[in-house]
C-alpha cells in the first residue's frame, strides 16, 4: 500500500476496530482518525500508538516496508528491528515510561521514532510528513519558546479540522512579560500560538489575530474562550455551560452569529485561549 492513509485504514480493519474504537485506544478524537484515513494533514505523531492499538508493525505503518504484522508487535521486537540508533532508545523509553509521561512528552518521543524511521537508509519517506529544523539560539533569562503552528480556528462558521499542522517557527517571549499581560499557566511547554480567522469574535479577537493558547486544557474550566472541535469543524468561541448536557457557543457578533446550544459529549476542547497577541496601528 503506497498511501499512509490506506495503511492506517487497513490496520484498523485488521484489528476489527471502528474509527471510534481506534481513536479511544490511540488517545485522539474520532475526527482525527477520519482525517488520517482520508489522507488529510498527515504526520506521524500518533503512528506508534495506532500501530500498537491495531497490533501491526510500526515500520510497516510508517513506511509500507515489510509485512503488516509479525505475530506480536511487541516493543521488544520493534527494538530488535531497529537495534541501532535513536529508534531503539526511544522505543525502550516508551516501553518503560510511556504510561507515566505527559501527552506532550509522549508526542515528542513518538515524533522521534517516526523521524528515525524516515531517516533509515533506503527507506521510502512516509507520505506528506513534515520535517522541521529545530536549531535555535539559546534562551536568555526567563525566556520561553512558544511553538507557532499553522492552525486557523474559525471565529464564524468553523473550519475543517487540522489535526497535524506544520510548525512555522518558535516565538521567543519573556515569562515576565506574559505575567505583566495577565497570562497565567502551569507549564509553559503547553503554550502554543495559533491564528483566529473571521470577525465573529471582534472586537475581542480580530481577523488573523495570533492567539496564545494553553493546549493542556482539554476540558471546560469555566466560562471563557476556547479552541474546540464540534461536528468535525474547528472553532474559536466563548463557551458557557447550559446544563449537564449542553454548552452554549457564543460569538461577540451575536447579531450575525446567534448563540448555539451544542452537546458537551460532541464538543472536543483542544485548548483555552489565554491572550490575543495583536497590534493596533497608531
From TrEMBL:
Residue span(s) of domain HTH cro/C1-type: 8-61
Record's keyword terms, sorted: DNA-binding, Transcription, Transcription regulation
InterPro entries in the record: Cro/C1-type_HTH (IPR001387), Lambda_DNA-bd_dom_sf (IPR010982), LexA-like (IPR039418), LexA/Signal_pep-like_sf (IPR036286), Peptidase_S24_S26A/B/C (IPR015927)
Protein name: Helix-turn-helix transcriptional regulator
Amino acid at each position: 500500500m503506497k498511501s499512509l492513509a490506506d495503511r492506517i485504514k487497513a490496520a484498523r480493519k485488521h484489528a476489527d476496530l471502528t474509527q471510534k474504537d481506534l481513536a479511544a485506544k490511540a488517545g485522539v478524537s474520532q475526527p482525527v482518525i477520519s482525517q488520517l484515513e482520508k489522507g488529510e494533514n498527515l504526520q506521524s505523531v500518533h503512528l506508534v500508538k495506532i500501530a500498537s492499538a491495531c497490533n501491526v508493525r510500526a515500520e510497516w505503518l510508517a513506511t509500507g516496508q515489510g509485512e503488516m504484522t509479525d505475530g506480536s508487535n511487541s516493543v521488544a521486537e520493534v527494538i530488535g528491528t531497529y537495534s541501532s540508533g535513536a529508534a531503539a532508545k526511544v522505543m525502550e523509553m516508551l516501553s518503560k515510561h510511556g504510561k507515566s509521561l505527559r501527552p506532550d512528552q509522549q508526542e515528542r518521543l513518538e515524533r522521534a521514532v517516526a523521524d528515525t524511521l524516515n531517516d533509515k537508509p533506503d527507506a521510502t519517506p512516509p507520505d506528506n510528513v513534515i520535517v522541521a529544523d529545530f536549531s535555535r539560539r539559546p534562551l536568555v533569562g526567563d525566556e520561553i519558546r512558544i511553538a507557532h503552528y499553522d492552525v486557523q480556528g474559525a471565529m464564524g462558521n468553523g473550519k475543517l479540522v487540522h489535526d497535524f499542522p506544520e510548525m512555522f517557527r518558535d516565538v521567543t517571549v519573556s515569562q515576565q512579560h506574559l505575567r505583566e499581560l495577565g497570562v497565567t499557566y502551569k507549564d509553559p511547554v503547553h503554550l502554543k500560538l495559533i491564528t483566529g480567522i473571521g470577525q465573529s469574535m471582534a472586537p475581542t479577537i480580530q481577523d488573523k489575530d495570533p492567539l496564545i493558547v494553553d493546549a493542556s486544557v482539554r476540558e471546560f474550566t469555566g466560562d471563557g474562550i476556547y479552541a474546540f472541535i464540534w461536528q468535525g469543524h474547528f472553532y474559536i468561541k466563548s463557551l458557557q455551560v447550559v446544563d449537564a448536557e449542553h454548552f452554549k457557543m457564543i460569538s461577540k457578533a451575536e447579531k450575525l452569529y446567534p448563540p448555539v446550544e451544542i452537546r458537551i459529549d460532541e464538543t472536543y476542547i483542544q485548548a483555552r485561549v489565554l491572550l490575543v497577541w495583536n497590534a493596533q496601528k497608531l
